[in-house]
Input
Amino acid sequence: MNRKELDPDASPQAAFGARLRRSREEQGLTQDELADKMGYSSTHISSVETGRKLPTLRLARSADTALGTGDKFERAYRKVRHLGLLEGFPEFVDFEGNAAEIRLYEVGVIPGLLQTPEYATVLADSAVKRGAITPDQARERVSLVAERQTALVRTPPPLVLTVLDESCIRRPIGEPAVMEAQLARLVEFAELPNTVFQVAPFAMGARRPFNLPVTVLTLPDRSLMSYAESAQRGHLERESVFVLPVLTAYHQLQAESLSQAESVAMINQVRKGNP
Output
């Protein structure tokens, strides 16, 4: 029988496959036997072991249960899932989940913390069609959106201040029903007791201090960090001397943006099909 040898150092995906094969063989299991215990086909297990298919969170947890490995495979999966994400973003998400205050500014698309599953799916599927990510990575992106949103309902919840460029609410994403549900979600978000929601209108012009999306986090110890993205990578900044000017610019952005009431009114006008 042909056996494909993997280099575990080649990638987190290869490391996961090699670890799964090694653990299976140490317990004297065939691929068929492990597949039965995990609820997968032997072909699927073979594809994961040889690095042809990305593992999912469900598969990782099933492997831990079937092989009695605690959370070893779930932790290994966490490294694999980040393959379809921008450099710097996984580290940012860890801090975001514990932040006391989150300040968001987004251009062009609704930010992940506010996305509906349908809206997130359209964006992920579009990335697949462009060849930017695989279908498995697209599913993981959608799952990560849902996972990140649990930060909004933890106790105590963070204060979330959001400013969206007007392009976010006017750019159609998916079918009309998808966009309608997304705009309705924004209105619901604005009504939460721990949120502030504003739209930066096109009329701001050159008074807009940011040209790219930016996030400022205030951690429980009151330390600050900022996160910004370019087309290919994200940058997490933890030095106060660099974060404070970003925070100042964010306050200027809020001052120039529409009030929350005006922002919700604009969204409702868009929902009615009015310019």
User: Anything to note?
Assistant: The chain has a mean pLDDT of 89. The chain has twelve helices and six strands. The first strand starts at residue 101 and ends at 106.
